[in-house]
Amino acid sequence: MDEFDPWSPDFLRDPYPAYAALRSQGRVHYYAPSGQWLVPQHADVSALLRDRRLGRAYTQRFSHEEFGRTAPPAAHEPFHTLNDHGMLDLEPPDHTRIRRLVSKAFTPRTVSGLQPYVRKLARDLVSGLVERGGGDLLADVAEPLPVAVIAEMLGIPEADRAPLRPWSADICGMYELKPSEETAARAVAASVEFSAYLRELIAERRKSPGADLISALIAAHDEGDRLSEQEMISTCVLLLNAGHEATVNSTVNGWLALFRHPEQLAALRADRSLSSTAVEEILRYDTPLQLFERWVLDDIEIDGTVIPRGAEVALLFGSANRDPQVFDRPDDFDVARPENPHISFSAGIHYCIGAPLARVELAASLEALLDGAPNLRLAAEPRRKPGFVIRGLEELLVET
Questions:
Q1: N or C: which end of the chain has fewer CB within 10 A?
Q2: What is the rounded CA–CA span in Å between residue 105 and residue 98?
């Protein structure tokens, strides 16, 4: 347990040896600094993601007092109103109803129809990078691609897109362990501003529907059920935040892994048919979402340890994706890895609804960079973001 320190720069640089130590020492560990039970092994993480004795929320069954928890501060209310009406933090029956309605709008056909736009945008972004002789792969390619795609999908006008990434970054700061009051204040401000913007945009789409996801969400219905305005706002924010955070961080984490394993980059350049397995390996090897939390709604037992109702479980995705019980040579980066049951998109009822789109985006940017920048190389040692839960880089400077 001494090696697990999510606030240590050394741990954040490379958490994987600490995960290996956790796995070797047992299936569950109580971590007092965060007040969580850490679950590091793939089989347990996978099973608990599907276990209905755990939930992303508890207020559907208990009051804060009954659950032994304190209600969030009143000053944080705008963030929680926004967050708590999205699928990610809802449990059945509300989760079931909202996911069913969103699925009517967010269809495989919708994702398929976006593919030409995604590929063209990726090629254009890479062309700009090459013309400049290099730059920041994060700011120039990894970030603008998924933000533009989800904004296009939602129907957010191009002129309105500049605040989307800052709003998202400020809101996602609340998903880190023990966020500061300064982080909370930024998240609250972003929640207020983003919600106000979407409320106006939804009102416009009610008057003049378009061929976009917001219009489709307004129209979606099932046996008389419709999304409330707050559910639509929360869904749009969730789709934007989840729809690009993982893709941005997977892209830069993946390219850093390729640069540090030149033989794998050479294999990928030589055989473009490896792109699909490379995408899955990028998602596994340096997982963009390292931890996913669950509340214990009814007592559970793991390897003889009873975890009581009211406790919080931290499912360590980054550790599960390096578990030698599941992955051959788990610490090797292998773009041709044939069997890859990673859990980077979660599992169970909260499996990522945007996983097909994320895969399309990752493949498009990977192939555009392989084709358009065949001599792409690292220009400087990158800096890690200070967060643990969402794992990414501050920048990734490259030369072409």
A1: N
A2: 11
Q: What is the DSSP code (8-state) at residue 71?
A: P
**Is it the case that residue 55 has pLDDT exceeding 90?**
yes
Q: In the prediction, which pLDDT does 223 show?
A: 64
Nearest partner of 115 among 352, 370, 365, judged by Cα = 365
Residue count of the chain: 400
Q: Does domain 9-399 have CATH number 3.40.50.2020?
A: no
The residue among 240, 255, 221 whose CA lies nearest residue 171 is: 240
CA–CA dist 195, 286 (Å, integer): 32
Q: Give the C-alpha separation, 232 to 201, whole Å.
A: 11
Give residue 149's pLDDT. 93
- The pLDDT score that the predictor gives to residue 377 is 97
Q: Compute φ and ψ for 55, nearest 5 degrees.
A: -150, 160
CB atoms within 10 A of CB 14: 11
- Please state the φ and ψ torsions of residue 298, each to the nearest 5 degrees: -140, 145
pTM listed for this prediction: 0.94
Residue from 38, 81, 59, 31 nearest 230 by CA: 81
Q: In what order do the strands lie in the sheet with 312-316?
A: 29-31, 36-39, 312-316, 291-296, 54-55
Q: How many Å apart are CA 363 and CA 358, to the nearest integer? A: 9
- For the stretch 233-262, pLDDT in tens is 999 999 888 878 889 999 999 999 999 999
Q: For residues 263 and 180, give the distance between their C-alpha atoms in angstroms, rounded to a whole number.
A: 42
Please report the pLDDT score of residue 243 as a whole number: 76
What are 347-397's pLDDT values in tens digits?
999 999 999 999 999 999 999 999 999 999 999 999 999 999 999 999 999
Three-class secondary structure of residue 155 per DSSP:
coil
Report whether 187 contacts 196 (CB < 8 A): no
Structure tokens at 293: 């939390």
Query: How many Cβ atoms from other residues are within 10 Å of residue 258's Cβ?
Result: 24
Residue 362 is inside which H or E element, if any?
helix 355-372
CB 112 within 8 A of CB 217: no
In the predicted structure, residue 222 carries a pLDDT above the cut 70: no
Q: Can you tell me the distance from the alpha carbon of 207 to that of 6, in angstroms, rounded to the nearest whole number?
A: 48
Under a CB-based contact definition with an 8 Å cutoff, are residues 309 and 298 in contact? yes
